[in-house]
Amino acid sequence: MIYVARNAKDVAVSYYYFHQMAKMHPEPGTWEEFLDKFVAGKVSFGSWYDHVKGWWEKRNDYHILYLFYEDMKEDLKGEIQKLLKFLEKDLSEETVNKILYHSSFNVMKQNPNANYTTLTKEEMDHSVSPFMRK
């Protein structure tokens, strides 16, 4: 298993914008209202804290690679190398460079398979907020 955790503040901000544009979720209300719900775990998928903590604890009982989104942003190649080691894969430098290119934020932001632009405005309204903001 591979688990990627992200800073709670960044998750809350991202999730707030996601709730505004993804029409399958209820309106988030004001930032303050949403943040209160997020901290209390009263948002879709429940408590961020319980989820992250639960997977952190499972790493002691299962073969889990636990990565951090912020580390991926800072050193994507290093994190890909960790992933390859975990998967016991040895790839050529050319292939690793292709992975780096296709998993970069700017390329993924333009990729309809990653940015959800293939969904209708009734499902995800990208005029409210893009799925991949920054």
TrEMBL record:
Q: Which domain of life is it from?
A: Eukaryota
Domain Sulfotransferase stretches: 1-134
E.C. number: 2.8.2.-
Any one GO cellular component localisation term in the record:
cytoplasm
Q: Which Gene3D superfamilies match?
A: P-loop containing nucleotide triphosphate hydrolases (3.40.50.300)
* Sorted UniProt keywords: Cytoplasm, Transferase
Enumerate the InterPro entries for this protein: P-loop_NTPase, Sulfotransferase_dom
What main location does UniProt list? cytoplasm
Compartmental location: Cytoplasm
Q: Does the keyword Zinc-finger apply?
A: no
- Protein family (similarity comment): Belongs to the sulfotransferase 1 family.
Please state what the protein is called: Sulfotransferase
Q: Which organism is it from?
A: Octodon degus
Instruction: Cite the source lineage.
Output: Eukaryota, Metazoa, Chordata, Craniata, Vertebrata
Protein encoded by which gene:
LOC101561530
